[in-house]
Amino acid sequence: MDALEPYGERGRPGEGAAGPDGRTGRSADGYWPVADVLAHLAGRWRVERTVRDLAGGAEGRFTGTTVFRALPDGGLLHEESGTFTWQGVARPATRTLRFLPGPTPGRADVRFADGRPFHALDLTTGRYVAEHPCAADLYRGEFTVRDADRWRTVWRVGGPAKHLVLVTDYVREG
């Protein structure tokens, strides 16, 4: 698989407003460290995703919203809904995940809606790379936090069944 590239311009330390966890500024490498991942993600986000099939050249786009709501026993329910357009055909699309508390506030255990493990998430440095094997394919995701209101995921999927790149930008609403 190709190396993952960080996105956007890198900021100067001290840029930006305080986030929900009280942090201000970026680390020296341009990422926004997150002290409490669940507090940071809580709320409503505008989502834009591109999906590229590297084998066939097709490209799709998802636009919608993601809402992170508190779960009764701790953690957040991630509910994504919007429209996915693939080869000119637009369809409604949804996805549900569970972000459960990790061993420290900066970490979370991400699970599918049915409780199966998906990946760990550690945003204490503002950047994290996760892997998830799915049958013979491997999903490799890079999570980067730009500031209190913007973050991105880049998933590269490789294997016999898929060869994709999914880039998702999240912007806090409100």
Give a brief rundown of this model.
This protein is mainly beta and 174 residues long.
What portion of residues is helical? Answer: under 10%
Question: Class by helix and strand content?
Answer: mainly beta
Assembly of the depicted chains? single chain
The helix tally amounts to: 1
Alpha-carbon Rg, integer: 16 Å
Q: Hey, roughly how much beta strand do the residues contain?
A: over 45%
The first-to-last residue Cα distance is: 37 Å
Poorly predicted segments: 1-23
Side-by-side strand order of the widest sheet:
6-5-4-3-2-1-10-9-8-7
What's the count of strands? 10
- Looking at the structure, what is the overall shape? globular
Mean pLDDT: 88
The biggest sheet, with number of strands, parallel, antiparallel or mixed sense and barrel status, is: 10 strands, antiparallel
The SSE order reads HEEEEEEEEEE
Write up this protein.
With 174 residues, the protein is mainly β. The chain has one helix at residues 37-41; strands spanning 43-53, 59-70, 76-86, 89-101, 107-112, 117-122, 127-134, 137-147, 150-158, 163-172. The chain is globular.
